[in-house]
Design brief:
about 130 residues; 4 strands; four-stranded antiparallel beta sheet; alpha+beta; 4 helices
Length: about 130
């Protein structure tokens, strides 16, 4: 299983909350109310950022092990994500879609106890020649 690890900087200051950024992954930032929340949000932000980069055909940044300079109370933490799991979860999540059919057809389908979602999914797969 493919995994990627990047260093994250957890910044604290006088304000409540913790900010997080990834020096090697430009534009990937997050925050949280406390360390545990910031850690969870950082993992999610990195996973979604990597997903977006790969979807857009961008080259993923190389990880450097150089620990960036930080302020007092800040922490550098390695964050590991599993891009293929994230991609699979996103691509296979269910999405609600509204369709319009004649009333008489809807009544007949309901009388037979048909599952619209399964039936529509099967019909689309059949139309596209997808056998999974």
């Amino acid at each position: 299983m493919r995994k990627l690890t990047y260093l994250a900087v957890f910044e604290t200051d006088e304000k409540p909350g913790i900010s997080v950024y990834f020096p090697d992954v430009q534009g990937c930032v997050s925050c949280g109310d406390n360390f545990e929340h910031a850690l969870q949000m950082a993992k999610e932000a990195l996973a979604l950022h990597i997903y977006g980069m790969e979807k857009d055909g961008e080259t993923l940044p190389k990880r450097t092990d150089k620990v960036p300079e930080t302020g007092k109370g800040d922490m550098v933490v390695p964050i590991t994500v599993y891009p293929d799991i994230v991609k699979d979860e996103i691509n296979n999540r269910r999405e609600k879609t509204t369709v319009t059919i004649p009333h008489w057809l809807k009544s007949a389908a309901e009388a037979e106890g048909l599952n619209y979602s399964r039936l529509l999914e099967a019909a689309i797969k059949e139309t596209l020649g997808i056998n999974s």
